Amino acid sequence: MNIQGGSLYPLFCIQACLVVGIAGGFLLNGLEAALSALYGGGLALANSALLGRSLRAAGATAQREPKQGVWMLYFGAVQRFLLVLTLFAVGMGVLGLPPLPLIVGFAGAQVAFLIGGIGRTPASSVDDKETRT
């Protein structure tokens, strides 16, 4: 994921594909399990959208006021944590979705961060290579 002006579209595509595959697997256990996995994956997609929004906002702010940009990152992390916690409670408590498919759908979508990062070089090592040549 390219933080500096990059697009989260590839990450969303990987997440969506993983979630659909996981939900398809849970479909063998019934429609409710598949819907629960889709809910968990949707939760992860919403979390990723908030991450992208907070990274863009913090990056723009950090250029003017670095400390405020860091605080925006912290606030974004707390905001995402509370969103995930609340939506898990709604899914399992209010909607009565089965917990295992919900958690597996969420965790499976989070694997997209690992898949999306394969083959990418950290920015710090790229900067080091550029200064050496």
TrEMBL record:
The chain crosses the membrane at residues 7-27, 33-51, 71-94, 100-119. It is a multi-pass membrane protein. GO terms for cellular component: plasma membrane. The keyword Transmembrane helix applies. InterPro entries: ATP_synth_I. Keywords: Cell membrane, Membrane, Transmembrane, Transmembrane helix. It is found in: Cell membrane. It comes from the Bacteria. The keyword Lipid metabolism does not apply. This is ATP synthase subunit I. It comes from Nitrococcus mobilis Nb-231. The lineage of its organism: Bacteria, Pseudomonadati, Pseudomonadota, Gammaproteobacteria, Chromatiales.
